[in-house]
Amino acid sequence: MLLHEYLRQSAHRSPDKIALVTGQTRHTYSSLSSSARGLAAFLHANGLQKGERVAVYLDNCVEAVISIFGILEAGGCFVVINNTAPPERLGFIANHCSARFLIAPQHRLDLVHKAQALCTTVPQLIITGNNVGHDIGTSFESACKAQPSTSIPQIIDLDLAAIIYTSGSTGEPKGVTFAHRNIDSAVDSIIEYLENNSEDVILGVLPLSFGYGLLQLLVTFKTGARLVLEKGFGFPYELARRIKDERVAGFAGVPTMYAILTQLESLANEDFSSLRYITNAAAAMPPPFIPKIKKIFPTARIYLMHGLTECLRTTYLPPDQLEQRPTSVGRGMPNVELWISDADGKRLPYGQTGELVVQGSNVMLGYWNDPVTTARVITAGRYPWERVLHSGDLFRQDEEGYFYFVARKDEVIKSRGERIAPKEIEDVLYQLDEVHEARVIGVPDPILGQAIRAEIVLKEGRSLTERQVKAYCREHLEDFKTPTVVAFVPALPKTAGGKIKRTGDIAPTT
Amino acid sequence: MQQEHIQTEVADFIRKNFIFSDTKKLNNDESLLGSGVVDSTGILELIAFLEGKFQVKFADSDLVAENFDSVNKIVSFVSRKTTGAAA
């Protein structure tokens, strides 16, 4: 099914049903659908061609939801960019995917203008917020009121639907590119194993710029259920209250969230009986969390899962296996074939560690504008029409076919469930004139999964403070990439060839 | 006077730990999370700081946006808490 049909068909079936709750506002399927069709008409009338990209630089809000479906409805490809991205990154992405339009909030115009300056072809602005002046761009509100268009070209499920930007090991963002059918396939598999239905209320806390967050919206709209969309996890007690008041049935989180939730002792006495399931992905759930989560949410089934942006989702552990295999992420979800391969592409038997390889309709088309990196991760299968994805995640399998995550093949740090390339942060550190050498490593952290530790060797006679370094990183990186700890060290561990090692122990500070 | 003191302490803490800059403006009415000044784990650090600094204990149910999502909201909530404790 085409992704924008999710909204259309749900609006057709239950026009007056509340589809989305944002803050105190409730939105029906029909109102969202008519706004999305208006936006589509506006984009089409203003020259958006099939497959062209529209960047969405918004947090989790109703305008972001309308944008996603409106862009698809017009035959375009949506690119949601994390709303904490600094102007350099926003500009890089908008330019990299040659975004034709950029949808952004009025209160961040300064930053948007800086980003636009980095684009070879400047994207046309559509601005959310009240009283948007004609001089700064088109108001989102008025764009959504455009007369629905009848001349939008035929869209098929092989057409481009979305690009999700993620950190590569080189530090440059990579644009993971999907056709409608790739995402739709993942959505169908998820609905099947989570047994989602139209009565569900799903709590969406993860950002829509993140595959796992986006899936919450898509699964909800395909089943005609309701999404309670939150801007983030800042106030855990508030979310707990949301679960109670909105009778939430499903909640998707990352271990950092569960670490925080399980610290709130008073939650154990609250009534969360509406909760049917919770899911975990993006980083491994520490087994000690599980009994604590069960205590707070006794009615919820716990699904441990694994996914990667390049195919959205791979495995889930059926909840009845949790007791027996709390460290497993389960088996392949429906319609996905998984196996473990050695460096030469040979399938490995049970018990051996190798790279997880994925085949399925959910596998991305490739990295946007990057055939070299794409060819490294997507290779031919047994037959010429088969394509297999090399996940970069090392796994082993037990005799009954359950998968266990072992490590990343590269040096990517997982903090708060986000994938972070050490090199990207190191590149920023090296921009500081005082820095002689730097490395960034992940260190275990009970809340973050991994905390980011930056180690710096200063040039002779120069000085810097931890605060200065963090301030500089904060200005040039998304907030979740700012190092948690900055240590000044006399030397860094090196390989025999003189390269700085990114693995191993933290460098001594004295 | 008390309120001014709380405001200075809170703004200092945010500047030192989240903004890292003395020149960047901190708008006291702006949503800390919404504007991206403080992220979700940062809010918890901020709350731990407030408990230590002003000798107050927050209940889990206090940890909501209406009490903590801007400098001004924090100032008024903390001063209510501290005067409440004194009474």
The average pLDDT score of chain A comes to: 92
What order do the helices and strands of chain B follow? HHHH
Number of strands of chain B: 0
- CATH level-3 fold name of the domain at 3-17 and 27-155 in chain A: Rossmann fold
Number of helices of chain B: 4
Number of helices of chain A: 14
Low-confidence region ranges of chain B: none
Write the CATH architecture name of chain B. Orthogonal Bundle
CATH class category name of the domain at 3-17 and 27-155 in chain A: Alpha Beta
Helix content of chain A: 25-40%
* Overall 3D form of chain B: globular
Find the CATH superfamily of the domain at 3-17 and 27-155 in chain A. Answer: ANL, N-terminal domain
> Most extensive interface, residues per chain?
A-B, 31 and 24 residues
Strand content of chain A: 25-35%
Corresponding CATH superfamily of chain B: ACP-like
What distance separates the N and C termini of chain B? 18 Å
CATH class of chain B: Mainly Alpha
Strand count, sense and barrel status of the largest sheet of chain A are:
9 strands, mixed
Roughly what fraction of the amino acids of chain B lie in strands?
A: under 5%
